[in-house]
Specification:
CATH superfamily: HUPs
Strand content: 5-15%
CATH architecture: 3-Layer(aba) Sandwich
Distance between the termini: 42 Å
Radius of gyration: 19 Å
Number of helices: 12
Number of domains: 1
Number of strands: 4
Helix content: 40-55%
């Protein structure tokens, strides 16, 4: 974890305990939903690698299927690293090139820039994941971490879509620590984080700041509910505070179910929103 000025490390993690919690979470939630298989989009990055390691431990290697879904411009190293994870875990994997599907649409949209194209790729991957999950009668397991979710760094109905998510309450810094506990290949832990949506793209390059700095302020702002004065006292300048706060606020719509207009006494996700399993 980076420490700059008065910033301190607030992301200590008992990785052995968290590992146990997340493995039990995956096993219990999969079974409660009436399934025993998990489907993971394995990109070659640390988040999907950690999810795949946890899913394999929870469900057994015979019940986890990794889908490798490259596009024509994807880094060859990403595919190599994804295959390494699947091989190390001894799980089934399928490689499906999404280029023909994506290009069929983007070829009719000459005005689509890199961001729109990246969103199309992310959503096409999720189409494939959910189609294969229907074939396998398995659940799509998510890979988005808490940093990404809070900053809105993800594609709605794309990489953010899933049935269950083991990483959503772990900051990126904590995911790296858990990866070491799980013995994810070091080359994956050490690689520069990237959604690999276009050549040279990096997460931190798009943010304009590091994950380490983001995690420090997010912990204070969200987990500890510190106000701006306290954040300034912790060493963060006003521009950065407002930038992070703005990203959180503007991406709120991505973190909640679609808003339903209320016209009855019991409205789905308003009055009727039990967090329970029915008949399982």
């Amino acid at each position: 974890m980076e420490t700059t000025g008065r910033h301190t490390d607030n992301h200590a993690l008992n990785t052995a305990v968290v590992r146990k919690i997340l493995v039990e979470f995956l096993r219990d939630e999969t079974q409660h939903a009436g399934f025993h298989k998990g489907i993971v989009g394995l990109s070659g990055g640390v988040d999907s690698a950690v999810t795949t390691f946890l899913a394999t431990e929870a469900l057994g290697k015979e019940n986890v299927l990794a889908l490798l879904l490259p596009y024509a411009s994807s880094s060859p190293e990403s595919l190599t690293d994804a295959r390494l994870v699947a091989s190390q875990l001894g799980i089934r994997s399928e490689t499906i090139d999404i280029s023909p599907m994506v290009d069929a649409y983007l070829g009719t949209r000459s005005d689509a820039g890199a961001v729109r194209a990246g969103n199309v790729m992310a959503r096409e991957r999720m189409i494939v994941l959910y189609d294969v999950s229907a074939r396998e009668n398995g659940l799509v397991i998510g890979t988005s971490n808490k940093t990404e979710l809070l900053l809105g760094y993800g594609t709605l109905f794309g990489d953010m879509a899933c049935a269950i998510n083991p990483l959503g309450d772990l900051y990126k810094s904590q995911v790296w620590r858990l990866a070491a506990e799980l013995r994810v290949p070091q080359q994956i832990i050490d690689k520069t984080p990237s959604a690999d949506l276009w050549k040279g793209q990096t997460d931190e390059g798009e943010f304009g700041f590091t994950y380490a700095k983001a995690d420090q302020i997010l912990y204070l702002m969200v987990d500890e509910r510190r106000d701006d004065a306290e954040l300034r006292a912790a060493g963060f300048d006003d521009a950065f505070i407002q930038r992070v706060r703005s990203l959180i606020m503007k991406s709120q719509f991505k973190r909640r179910p679609p808003v339903i207009a209320k016209v009855s006494h019991r409205t789905v996700n308003v009055d009727f929103r039990y967090a329970r399993d029915w008949g399982t």
